Structure formats: structure tokens, C-alpha cells
Amino acid sequence: MSRLKSVLAYTAAVLALLIALATFTGMDSFGRKLVSVTGIKVSPWMIGGEVVSVIEHEGYQTVIHRPVFDGLFSERKKGMLQIDWTPQQGLPARVDELIDFDRDGKDDFHIVLNPESNKAGLEAINPRVVSIEGCYTLKDGRAARLSLYHD
Amino acid sequence: MSVFSPRPEMPAPSTARGIVRAVLLTLPMLLLIAMMMTQGELPKDSLTRAVTAITYALLGAVFFLMVYKKETYKYRAALFTIVAVCFSIAFIANLVEMRGSMAVSRADMLAGETPFCHLVIPMVIIPAAFTRTIIFPGSLLEGFANIASMLILWLGASLALGRGWCSWVCFFGGFDEGFSRLRKKALIKKIAPVWTYLPWAVLLTLALISALTLSPFYCEWLCPFKAVTEFEQITSFKILLQTIIFASLFILLVVILPLLTRRRTQCGLFCPFAAFQSLANKINIFDLRIDTEKCKNCRLCVKDCPTFSLDENSVGRGKTLMSCTKCGKCVDICPQRAVTYHIKGTPVAVGSDTARILFLYPAFIFMSAIGGSMIVSALTRIFKLIATGSMIG
Ligand code: SF4
Ligand code: SF4
Could you tell me which of A24, A76, A39, A53 has the C-alpha nearest to residue B149? Predict the structure, then answer.
């Protein structure tokens, strides 16, 4: 019995070497498999929710992300909405827009952004819209995050 | 026999047999390192070729010495420190080249381009289980240190080495290990054992806060290693405060306390990943054992273990604590040669050298595959600096 145990133990020890080799040789394919099997994504709190609509303007676009209310177990009462304006080059000196983020045909807020100073002003129309959390520089444009209440 | 009499069963490394044995055991490792470093293709430019050759020689020499001298700790610790320093040089030079500074901007974070690091793993697990999202602004599959490849690296190393990760794989651990070895004697010798529970408390608190806030709290507020990698651009009072905190923690836990105690205080007393990774020792096949018949209870190992992984009770039971990083120090310093690497399920002190070699192979593969590329990259930058006056470009 103890001999069998030793044989199994030494086999497992040799297996550790194979695991080490497989980790490096198969890193990319194991990584892709891990992502597809688990279906994991990067949290929308980090990179913004999925893009739900794009408004084309002359020279630039307004990109509206999905409002994010995701919590650990259930949706949160307060969430975040990210809006991007891109590309940087095409942005006017003053972005002035009425946005219907929930796509119900009614404008939800009026936002004014100065891309140069990266400062924005907000006028809420829909009472769910609370305030501007911050304005950020993107690789090729500007973004603003707004805090929102859930329906 | 006094406990300080010469170590029994000292190997006789100077014999021709010892050299032949070490060469034979080193050859397969040399082959594996060559495969890992070149991936079947020699670097194209002459500088990288030369630097790769230097790195290859260094790695080969370290492994040979470990086998030939039958000592693990001092060679491992030296290489581990070199890897950490090289990692930092290469990482920072890369960032400066790509972004112009060490500071990570909001643009990089919103674009999901922050390199993922293993320290955040204990904080992402609960949210990943419940929301199937990773609460880190990195890329899943693209680019350097993407989330998927770092998770695979961690899974592989956890299976193969357990918490050996913290002495053989982690590219940060070499910092506090390096500082802990700078002084010959410790100025602070007694550290209350209760402090060794701190990493568990930190782990629990941070895992809960991160899960509830769905943000990587440790990375944002506490990680001392941001001082030697990247940190958020200071654009608000909150980020300034975060910067002061991580810089102070680096100075205290990674520099000053290791210097004063000769222990790895960040890894042994604070790091939440360390506590988390200790659990991996439970599934790993390798551990360290103390032959209680040979042990004279001098407690040298208890006093010297860099990560506080031995206490009197554990020595009495012939085992290390769960937090053992398999660094090999207790094996090398025990005057009785009572401590050995061991394969679970085999008799203690039988075939201990085989157990050590079987552990060294996967451990060194991880160390050289991760560290090798970092040394090559850092040496290339250093040679560039000497030749052109700049590391960048
Ligand atoms: S195992 Fe530790 S306490 Fe026992 S003789 Fe070796 S160094 Fe001393
Ligand atoms: S118990 Fe021994 S091998 Fe484990 S961490 Fe301490 S000194 Fe290193």
C-alpha cells in the first residue's frame, strides 16, 4: 500500500514538471479556452457598459454605452452611464447635445462638453439622471460618466 | 553532538562524480530553458542575441550551482532579486516608451489596457463567480500581461508549486527578499506571532470590500509595488492620497522592515495574495518536512524563515506552516540537515535529494521562463542606455 502511495506520489511530482511546461507552451490556447468556457468579461464598471447606440455627427460620433447597475447579487439602485465622443480630431470646440440614453424617444439630459478643458455641464431632464461623475480623456476622444438612478 | 557541529551527511560536491551528476541534471534544464527563451528562433538583432546568451548562461549557472552545491536558498534568492529588479526596469522602460510615463492614465484604464497582475486574483474571484466579470481594467486576451494568460500562469504555478509561487515565480517578491538580505544581522529579532495572521485579515477584508464595491480595492489603495511599476496619474486629491499610501507601504514593508528584520515582511505579514496562495500548498504535491529524530530543536529555522512559516509547534510536528514558500532556506541552514524537500505520500527523509530535484525542475522552469525574458529585456535597455544615453527608443 505504502509502495503504491509512493509510486503515485512520484508520478504526481513528475506531473508538476509537465504542468510547468504545458503552462508556457499552451498559455495562449488555454487562455482562450478559459475565456470561452467561463464566459468571463471585463467588468463594465471598469471599461463602460456595452455600446448600445452611436450618433453620427459631422466629423465625430457620440457613443452611448449601456447604463451599468450591475451589483454582486442583484442590480444596484444607483449606476453609471458612459458617453464617449470620438475621434478627438473631429470634435468641435463645444459639444452640445441632447441625449436619449434609454431610447424611449424622449431626451434624458442636455450635456455640454468643452473637449479642450475636458469640462462638462449637465442639465438633467429625466429625474433618473443625477450628476456628472467625471470627464475623461480617451485614447482618441473624450468620455463622461454620469450617475443615474435605476428605474 | 552540539547542534553547531558540522552538518552531518554533508555532500562532497568537489568530487568528479558530483560534477558529472550536476552536469547531467543541468543538461535537460539547459535544453528546456533554451526552448523557453528562444521558442525555436534566435533573436534577430545582435544585441538581443548577446543579451539572451548572457541570460542563458546566468540561468544555467544558477541551476548548476543549486544541483552541484546541493544548496537552494542563496542562489534562488540572488536570481529572484535580479528578476524583480529587471522586471521593474523592463516594465517601466516599456511604459515610458509606450505612454511617456509610469503613470497609468484614465484613458488606458477605460481602454482596458492596464497589465493584469496576480496580486489582484484573490479580489477578482468572488465577483467573477457571481457576475462573470473581472473587476480589473485590463484586456482579456490581448496584449502584454492580459488577464487570461496571467490566470493560466497562476493556475499552472499553483498546481505545480503551491505557494512556491512566492519564492520562484512572483516578480515582486525579489524586492523584499533582496532588502532582507542586505544586512548581516537583524536589528529587530522578535516579531509577535500574532502578526502572521495579518495577511489573512487583509485578504478577508479586501476580498469582501472588492466584492461589495466591484472594484480592486488593494490595487487602488494599498499595493506597495505600484512604486516600482505603474500608478494612476495624480489628477485628484483621492489619487494623491492613494499615492502617499502605496509609497509609504513600499518604503515601510518592502525596504525598511526587511532591512531591520531580515525577513520578507511584505510577503509574510501583509500581502493578501500570499495568504490566498498558502491554500494552494494544500493541493500541491511538494512540501517541506522536518525529521523530528534528527532535529535538536535549536530553532534556527524558526528564527530565520523569511516568511514566518515555521514555529515551535510546527517544528515539533515535523511540518512547516501552510504559508511555506519552499524557498529552501531552512533546508540549507539546519545544522542537523533535518529539514528536507518532500513529496507528499512518500516517507520523510527517504529520497529527499530526489524530492528536491523533482521540485527544482518545475520551480526553475517557472523562474527562468518568467525571469529570463525580464532579464533579457532589462539588460537590453541597460546596454542601450550605455550606448546611446537613453533606455527608450
Ligand atoms: S529543524 Fe530547525 S530547530 Fe530543528 S535542528 Fe534544524 S534548524 Fe534547528
Ligand atoms: S519553512 Fe523553510 S522553505 Fe518554507 S518559507 Fe520558511 S525557510 Fe522557506
Answer: A24
What is the reported pTM? 0.92
Q: Which ligand is nearest to the CA of B8?
A: 1
Residues in B touching A65 (Cβ below 8 Å): none
C-alpha cell at position A151: 428605474
B261 and B190 in contact (C-beta within 8 Å)? no
Residue of B nearest to A136 (CA): B106
Q: For residue B196, what are the CA distances in angstroms to B267, B274, B306, B307, B310?
A: 10, 11, 12, 9, 11
The answer to whether the CB atoms of B134 and A73 lie below 8 A apart is no
Q: CA of A76: how far to CAs of A50, A68, A73, A101, in Å? A: 17, 9, 9, 18
**Strand, helix or coil at B185?**
coil
With contacts defined as CB-CB under 8 Å, which chain A residues touch B110?
Answer: 46-48, 82, 136, 138, 143
- Searching chain A, which residue's CA lies closest to the CA of residue B144? A28
What are the residue boundaries of the structural domains of chain B, listed by start? 1-97+351-393, 102-284, 285-350
Residue whose CA lies nearest to ligand 2 atom number 8: B327
CB contact under 8 A, A71 and B214: yes
Cβ contact (<8 Å) for B215 and A45? yes
Is the pLDDT reported for residue B2 higher than 50? no
User: B220: buried, middle or exposed (CB in 10 Å: 19+, 13-18, 0-12)?
Assistant: middle
Does the structure show a pLDDT above 60 at B11?
Answer: no
Per-residue pLDDT for A18 more than 50? yes
Q: Which of B107, B285, B366 sits opposite A138 (nearest CB)?
A: B107
Among the listed residues B327, B323, B328, the one whose alpha carbon sits nearest the alpha carbon of residue B309: B323
Phi, psi angles (nearest 5°) of residue B254 = -100, -25
Say yes or no for a CB contact (<8 Å) between A16 and B362: yes
Ligand 1 centroid distance, CA of B313 (Å)? 12
- What's residue B100's pLDDT? 81
Of residues B80, B147, B110, B146, the one with CA closest to residue B370? B80
* Centroid of ligand 2 to alpha carbon of B128 (angstroms): 32
- Ligand closest in space to the Cα of B77: 2
Query: Per-residue pLDDT tens for B164-196?
Result: 999 999 999 999 999 999 999 999 998 999 999
Q: What is the CATH number of domain B285-350?
A: 3.30.70.20
Q: Which residue reads 518532500 in cell numbers?
A: B342
Q: In which region does residue A118 sit, left (phi positive, over 0), alpha (psi from -120 to 50) or beta (all else)?
A: left
- Among chain A residues, the shortest Cα distance to B165 is held by A20
pLDDT (tens digit, 9 = 90+) per residue, B319-353?
999 999 999 999 999 999 999 999 999 998 777 88
